[in-house]
From TrEMBL:
The keyword Signal applies. Residues 1-24 form the signal peptide. This is LPP20 lipoprotein. Keywords: Signal.
Length: 367
């Protein structure tokens, strides 16, 4: 018997999927063995090997997770209630997986869940997280305040309105936010820092305020002052390259009689096609200096160079017009293109935005 290549490939895939649950079981991955076996039974409810694997893997997966939960509850782990909830959730996931397959339910008739046990643990988990948040806040550093924010946020997820977790979350986010007052000086108004400033301001724990607005916020102090100097912009001279093509063809011009037989006569035609390419590059620069207002020290200084490139082509035709293709004729009918200064400026701006955002986002996040 011969297999066609496609049928043979399908056979191999099916064979592999049949044994994947068993392989997971043999490796001690009982959780994975249950999931893979059930998925196989959804495709083929009478698959005996999957039923056999499921029958052996489910009790072992359940036993392993229950033992892990008991050990966690008996430990001195800081977040043992939260961690136990996560373990119970894995038991519940197996419960839902088995329940999703009628064939699997013929093997595991009463899958176990821990939904009712999770409820009482949620308040304990909130207590753990709330305490960790308070401890982090008391360290009074920006980094610890950010850590506290996520503790309080997770606390609220388990028990909404737990103590003052919501208020503490708001306060820790405020304490963890780096505030930056910025101003910019422009050269010939060729660009603006608006794009990368807006992107940076969207990052959590970073707030940028324009100096013009900052002066109206009497008494407010900022962590950093940033000067954005938008400097030179220039476009280089166009670079034009040419490539010549000598074209030779023949066309029918009539007929003549040879030995009383009409035969076509041809004429050789010639032409020259020149492919012209024009390239223009642009360049713009921005200088950024960041100072710590408390010490007056310069903490960041860098120059950025953004570039753009514009290209176009046109053709030059000479000689017999019949020798040229339609595309060549169209190219020759095009006048010499003029550089698109607007596109060149936009490209240089976008390149600068990308560079500045990449560099500053990392610096400000870790400052």
């Amino acid at each position: 018997m011969k297999f066609r290549p496609l049928l043979f490939a399908v056979f191999i895939v099916v064979l592999s999927s049949c044994s994947s649950g068993k392989k997971a079981y043999e490796k001690g991955d009982y959780y994975g063995a249950v999931v893979k076996s059930v998925n196989r039974l959804k495709q083929k409810p009478d698959h005996s090997k999957s039923k056999e694997t499921l029958k052996g893997a489910y009790p072992l997966a359940l036993q392993s997770l229950e033992q892990e939960a008991q050990n966690m509850l008996a430990s001195n782990e800081m977040f043992k209630s939260r961690n136990t909830i996560n373990i119970y959730n894995r038991v519940n996931e197996l419960y839902e997986v088995v329940k999703s397959s009628p064939a699997a339910l013929t093997v595991i008739k009463s899958p176990k869940n821990y939904y009712s046990e999770i409820g009482p643990l949620k308040e304990k988990a909130s207590e753990e997280l709330y305490g960790a948040g308070i401890t982090a806040m008391m360290k009074a550093t920006r980094r610890d305040s950010r850590e506290a924010y996520f503790y309080f946020k997770e606390c609220e997820g388990y028990t909404p309105r737990y103590k003052e977790a919501l208020e503490m979350m708001t306060q820790s986010e405020r304490d963890g936010t780096l505030t930056v007052m910025y101003e910019e000086s422009a050269y010939n108004n060729w660009t603006s820092s608006g794009n990368f400033i807006r992107q940076l301001d969207e990052i959590q724990f970073i707030e940028l305020v324009n100096k013009n607005i900052a002066v109206t916020q009497m008494g407010r102090k900022f962590d950093l002052n940033m000067l954005v100097s938008i400097q030179n912009y220039s476009e280089k001279k166009p670079v034009i390259t040419k490539k010549e093509y000598e074209l030779i063809d023949s066309v029918k011009v009539g007929e003549k009689v040879v030995n009383k037989v009409k035969v076509p006569t041809y004429q050789t035609i010639r032409g020259k096609y020149i492919e012209n390419k024009i390239t223009v590059e642009s360049e713009g620069t921005i200088s950024i200096v960041i100072v710590d207002p408390k010490t007056g020290n310069k903490v960041f200084s860098d120059d950025f160079r953004g570039t753009g490139i514009w290209k176009d082509t046109w053709g030059t035709c000479s000689g017999d017009q019949r020798v040229f293709s339609k595309s060549q004729k169209d190219a020759c009918a095009t006048s010499t293109p003029r550089p698109d200064s607007q596109a060149l400026r936009k490209q240089a701006m976008e390149d600068l935005d990308k560079q500045v955002y990449s560099r500053l986002s990392g610096f400000l996040k870790n400052y």
